[in-house]
Give the backbone structure.
Amino acid sequence: MMNLKRLAKSLILIILVLTQWSCAMNKISTNSTVKDNDKLVIAHRGASGYLPEHSIASKAMAHAMGADYIEQDVVMTKDDHLVVLHDPYLDRVTDVMEQFPIRSRDVFGQKRWLAIDFTLAEIKQLNMTEGFSVDKKTNEKKQGYSARFPLFKSSFKVSTLAEEIELIQGLNYSRGKDIGIYVEVKAPWFHHLEGKDISLATLKMIKDYGYKNKSDKVYIQCFDPIETKRIKSEVMPKLNVDYKLIQLIAETSWGETMQLKDGKLVPYNYDWLFEKGAMKKVAEYADGIGPWKPMLVTEDSTQGNIVLSVMAKEANELGLKMHPYTFRKDEGRIPDYAKDFDDLLDIFYNQVGVEGVFTDFPDLAVKFLEEN
Ligand code: G3P
Ligand code: CA
């Protein structure tokens, strides 16, 4: 009888130990996949500090580096395909000028080869490279960042949004990860003028790939506040989805978003976003903001004395997510108020209180977060 009692006690003890061990293991595995309450690294156009922006190789590299989200900027082709390109034009990152010399348009006084004037088949013929500009006098191409991947080396192509989502989902499967997509609807005002509803097409594709609501690893971002509000009030309800939404913020002078006024295209006025009370208005339709770094840390800041903007203070008070852009370690890209790239990350993650940063160097931000 005594032996039976002892056996029962031992069994209970073993079960208790096993249960606790299993709970601990669950915790470890949950923590390693669910990071949305934690600090985020957003791979800006992929690992674009090392490989041409938006190339499929740069996206694979960002995945391997352990970014939490990988960014896609999306524009539409003539035949309504969604392609991943930073600009509505192709001439900054491809050889379109050489392959299709007479297919440009005048855009605000500049010759531009627009993706919307080309079919996907034509775009797939192009060779993609690092971003460059062309010297007007010598006609020479000069890459934007001289220390990055050399111009027109190796072989890169423009990807469709579908190809990119399939790459990330495929790598998530083969690597046992849950890395997210972070999709920007580019220049909706322009697509509307061309008769295309880029927001609806983009969100529909995202839904078709299985993303449904805020708990899924997807962010939607847009620079156009009129369109961001429309995505919230019209596009998402129409598709029966509810994604995390980020209002990107630009300076009016950049001409990032244009608006028709009295039959003329004029820059959308972003001034209201810098006024007191603006973040409360944004919180009515978005989950967070994607501002340019100097919009959060003012120019009065010095090393050891970081001065936050009204925008940063209000966003913090309201619990609005802040995902500023763009963190680059290239020469001349680190503001004077930071000692080095790590210090810059420390200032934004820990003093400004941002949730995530867009960076061309996801490996460095991942390393910083691991070490801190
Ligand atoms: O979308 C946020 C970040 O990418 C900065 O904007 O101009 O690089 O698309 P941009
Ligand atoms: Ca972007």
Observations:
- The chain has a mean pLDDT of 92.
- DSSP finds twelve helices and 15 strands in the chain.
